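Need tokens for this chain, all 128 residues.
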Amino acid sequence: MEADKRDGGCEIDIKRLLTNKIFSQVFALHDDEAIADLKELWAMSFTAPQPLDDIRAYFGEKVALYFAWLGYYTMWLVGPACFGFVLFIIQLASQFDNLGVPVYSVFIALWATLFLEYWKRRNAELAF
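Here are the structure tokens for all 128 residues:
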């Protein structure tokens, strides 16, 4: 940020801004080594569990909880996706309406209830 524009910087004098109380504090946005570790543990591995402790240590608890929820939700979506795909193929093959839509609707209602209850359990586990 303090470098010349020709070097890719913004020519900002951070020390002057801190002295004049325009900025109250300055901190680095990212640690390149920690990002590389997270990338290796997390982003490059599709089947490995999320390193939630490492995510929490780097980004904070709210972000780690968000990614824990997102991973759990994605895992739970496999069932409705597969069931919905099978019903879609059946409906295409039959060329007329069948009981698939009402059955799928009941299934989704039960799935949503179960997902919520199991997420509450998982959330309680993560709290400790």
